[in-house]
From TrEMBL, chain A:
Residues 1-21 are annotated as: Disordered. This is TIP41-domain-containing protein. Belongs to the TIP41 family. GO terms for biological process: TOR signaling. GO terms for cellular component: cytosol. It holds the Pfam family TIP41. Residues 1-10 have a biased composition (Polar residues). Transmembrane segments: none annotated. It comes from Sporormia fimetaria CBS 119925. It comes from the Eukaryota.
TrEMBL record, chain B:
This is Serine/threonine-protein phosphatase. Residues 203-217 have a biased composition (Polar residues). The active site is at H116. Its EC number is 3.1.3.16. Keywords: Hydrolase, Manganese, Metal-binding. It is an enzyme of class 3 (hydrolase). Residues 382-391 have a biased composition (Gly residues). It comes from Sporormia fimetaria CBS 119925. Residues 203-245, 375-412 are annotated as: Disordered. Residues 112-117 form the Serine/threonine specific protein phosphatases domain.
Amino acid sequence: MTTLNGQPLNTHVPGHDADTSITRDGFKVTVRKLPILKAGPVEDMTQKLGITPPEMIFGDNLARIEHPQNGWNIEFNAFDALDRVDKTGASMLKVSYSKEWQKNRQKQFEEIKEVVKPFDWSYSTDYKGTTSGTPSFEPTEKPIPIQLLMRRDPILFYDEVMLYEDELADNGIAMLSCKIRVMAQRMLLLSRFFMRLDGVLFRIRDTRVYVEFETGEVIREYTAREEKYDTVRKAVPGSPEDVLAIMRDPNQLFAYVPIVEKSLDRAVIK
Amino acid sequence: MSIGGSDLDKAIAQLRACRPIPENQVRELCYKARELLIEEGNVVGVDAPVTICGDIHGQFHDLMELFRVGGDVPDTNYLFMGDFVDRGFYSLESFLLLLCLKVRYPDRITLIRGNHESRQITTVYGFYDECVRKYGSANVWRYCCDVFDFLALGALVTGAATSLSPTEGPLAENAEAMPDIDADIEIETLNSAGEVMFRYARNSDSQTSESSQTLGSSPARPDPTPTRVGAAGTGASGSSNGTSRNEGGAVLCVHGGLSPLIDTIDKIRLLDRKQEVPHEGAMCDLLWSDPDDIDGWGLSPRGAGFLFGGDIVKRFNHNNDISLIARAHQLVMEGFKEMFDNTIVTVWSAPNYCYRCGNVAAILELGEDGSNAGFQRRSNGDRGGGGGGWVLGSNDGTSTRNSTDNLRLPEGPGRRYRVFEAAPQDSRGMPAKKPVADYFL
């Protein structure tokens, strides 16, 4: 027996409208935003995943691009992203003061040595979205046409949605979120995993999905960036306050966190 | 200038309006607060009735909502379990208001230290930046950090009633079936309008009566050797040790949790707390550790920090004559979460955490023993021995070293949780946050 809570509670917060969507040339774009999961659903998810979910888990949220006529879609949700997190502990990071802590601990508590449920608690994921229907993505050399996205075409639909976030027990931040903008002729979705483990490491893993409505061409680009914390800290110019601000903002970190992995694939939905 | 009497009331009024007070007043306030806090022990003694609150994290308008729901200082006696600052936009106003109230009504509000009340953490998570932004220098941040070093590490609530006098409020729309009003009310959950959402009588479900039977009856014990279990001389038992009484054990309040270095409350009292939160050791553990569904102690997969299981809590509570540990530190979606057969509870008081989680918050009210006439707990034999076989406050039982099954745990206090949502957006003085379209690439 664990809880005796006075359920059920209505946690719906004003301003959280669940679904927003727009349809362009047969492509339907949907964003769903709801509060973090409550205890019951979190326990379900823990069981299904086999790991403890992040502290803030927006398990009902999603961003989806679908082509209903062809039965094709790509969706971004927290569960599928977390299902790709290492559950074995093989790629487990350690907080910056771990060595010092362990040394002192071993002197006093030799009998406490079991690491509880080891897994990649930084929630690093290489999630590129969940796809269903045909055609499936095929590798390509064709990049996303950045110049077309740099044009200031009016934005018809814009939204951002958080999928999960964890403060790494006050050792930094790990978050996965999506942004979508839809213009008259094309759209871009950016799913970004950002992780800063203070004193240890930065990771930025972006999945971009570009859709050209008229041709039905979908290009997906995955870019993983990684760099040691100290290297970034030394490279970032400015006062200590500026450095702290930059280290919270993935957009400003691009220059200091190099690409370690990249892939491109493509599908044409017509 | 000095900050006393009417100046203090002026400062309180100004902070209640969410306007920072001048730097020289902050300096004076922090000086006064330090003088006051230095006199407090590492474990502050608090008499029930008291309202226990978890993390605030600079969500000033939600702190105002908390006071609206729980009553104002000094009418309500408050205990805040740390993490006043960081993450929210108004750490400064929130912490300074709580500090002003502490100086103005020292006996009506208790502040203990959270892991965010630290120089290192506040430079990363927002409080430092906020001070620099609002004052143009880091002076105020320094004054506040000096106060952090003097905050107590825990509190011990004594004199809490074991049952609640049922709230005479209306029932909430979605309220569940209520136990008989004459029953011994252990838990009540109210919404922010004061409507009863949930009421729970002691021993009213099978799980609870089962555990009571285990506690109350005398099953064959694997190891009959009497071990020292009373922790006589700890503040937890104090003068009431050995005397039969109606109240349950004391309630220990701490921000994070237990430490393998701490098996008695007296060991907390012996720590030298007047320092920055260290990266290891007992003081660090008290502010950082978390309960988990494990046996014994475990190491966090992060490579630092302890996790502790239900057996650890039960043994600690038993040895220190504690009926409940109240702690904060972890976000819980329902505002509170009881674990390990109601021997520990996490209380979270920051609704819609970080302005985007959509969670509710809670505060925990403990009533005063004896004040609820007619509802005092007496052992009775009506329930087939459930609760009948054990005398509260009697510590001369036996226990085994490796099993907590047979530990006699003091009866828990009656617990009233008031659950509340985030303050309305328009009271924040800023527009609801809508994503602004940007040409991201």
